[in-house]
Design brief:
Elements (H helix, E strand, L loop, with lengths): L4 H20 L17 H24 L6 H12 L3 H20 L3 H6 L1 E4 L2 E4 H20 L10 H7 L3 H8 L7 E8 L3 E8 L2 E6 L12 E5 H8 L13 E3 L3 H7 L4
Parallel strand pairs: 3-6
Antiparallel strand pairs: 1-2, 3-4, 4-5, 6-7
Helix pairs in contact: 1-4, 1-6, 2-3, 2-4, 2-6
Length: 263
C-alpha cells in the first residue's frame, strides 16, 4: 500500500499530540524514572526525540539545498547540548523541538516535497521516507514512555497502518542472525497482511507471501495485530507486553523474539 504525504504528516501530528500529552501528564520528578528502554530514563528518551527532531531537520535542509547528508560531526554538538540539559528541561524542550520539526515540514511546499531526494543511511530516500523514519522513531519511543504507566499500551492504529508496509527494511537492519534458521508465515490484523518472516545466518528478511517466497506448503505461523509485528521488530514484544490475540503455531515465539532484541 502506498501512503500519501498527507497521511504521513497527519500520523506524525497525532504522534506529537500523544507524546505532548504524555509529557504533560508526568508527575513531578517522573522524568527521572525508568522508561521501557532499560538504559534510559523517561527524560533520556525524550532527549533522544528532541535531538532527533533537530537532526531530521538538518536532513530535510540537506535534501532541499542539494547538500550532502549531515554526519557525526553535525550530530555530536546536538547530542552534547541535549545531554547537558536537566531532566526537566529535556522533557519540556523535547516537545518544543518536535513541534518545530512539524512546523518545518508544513513550511515546505508540495513541489519541493516532490523533488526532495537525499542519499543517507545507505540509500537514496524521498521526502515521504524521511517522514516514515521519523514516525517510526517517534511512535515507538513515545510507547516506551506511555507503557510504563499502561502495560497494555499499543502502537496506535494510525501509525501501525502506515508502518506495517514499511517494516521490511527494519527487519533486514535490526534482525540478528539465527541458528538454527527459521521461517514463519505471518498474518496480521488491523490491517490484514500476509507475509513471510525468516531468519538465518545472514540475518532476517520479511516479504509479502506469494509465489517465489520460498515458504513450505504448511510453514509454522504467527498471527498478530499489525502493531504487534511492528513492536516485535523493534524489540518491544516481550511476554509481558504481548496481546492475548497473538498466536504462534509450530514455532516458539521466544525464538522469533531473540532475532529482534531491540535497542
Amino acid at each position: 500500500m502506498t501512503a500519501t504525504t498527507g497521511e504521513w504528516v497527519a500520523a506524525l501530528e497525532a504522534s506529537y499530540r500523544r507524546n505532548a500529552d504524555a509529557v504533560d501528564a508526568l508527575a513531578d520528578g517522573a522524568e527521572t524514572g525508568p522508561s521501557y528502554c532499560s538504559e534510559w530514563t523517561v527524560a533520556q528518551v525524550l532527549s533522544h526525540l528532541g535531538s532527533g527532531a533537530e537532526i531530521f531537520g538538518l536532513i530535510l535542509d540537506a535534501g532541499l539545498t542539494g547538500s550532502p547528508a549531515p554526519g557525526p560531526d553535525a550530530f555530536g554538538p546536538i547530542w552534547e547540548a541535549w545531554n547537558g540539559r536537566s531532566p526537566a528541561d529535556q522533557a519540556a524542550d523535547s516537545v518544543v523541538a518536535n513541534r518545530a520539526f512539524l512546523d518545518r515540514i508544513a513550511s515546505i511546499d508540495p513541489a519541493a516535497r516532490e523533488a526532495w531526494s537525499l542519499e543517507f543511511f545507505g540509500a537514496r530516500r524521498s521526502f515521504d521516507q524521511v517522514l516514515q523514519m521519523r514516525l517510526g522513531e517517534h511512535t515507538l519511543h513515545t510507547w516506551d514512555i506511555v507503557v510504563e504507566g499502561d502495560p497494555s499500551a499499543t502502537v496506535p492504529d494510525d501509525a501501525a497502518t502506515l508502518l506495517v508496509d514499511r517494516v521490511d527494511e527494519l527487519v533486514g537492519r535490526l534482525g540478528k542472525p539465527a541458528e538454527p534458521p527459521w521461517r514463519v508465515a505471518v498474518t496480521t490484523t488491523d490491517p490484514a497482511r500476509h507475509l513471510v518472516l525468516s531468519a538465518g545466518e545472514s540475518g532476517a528478511e520479511l516479504r509479502a507471501a506469494g509465489t517465489g517466497d520460498g515458504a513450505p506448503d504448511d510453514p509454522p505461523s504467527v498471527v498478530l495485530p499489525a502493531e504487534s509485528l511492528i513492536r516485535l521488530v523493534y524489540g518491544r514484544l516481550d511476554a509481558e507486553h504481548t496481546p492475548a490475540s497473538v498466536t504462534a503455531d509450530g514455532i516458539d515465539l521466544d525464538e522469533v523474539r531473540r532475532t529482534f532484541p531491540g535497542f
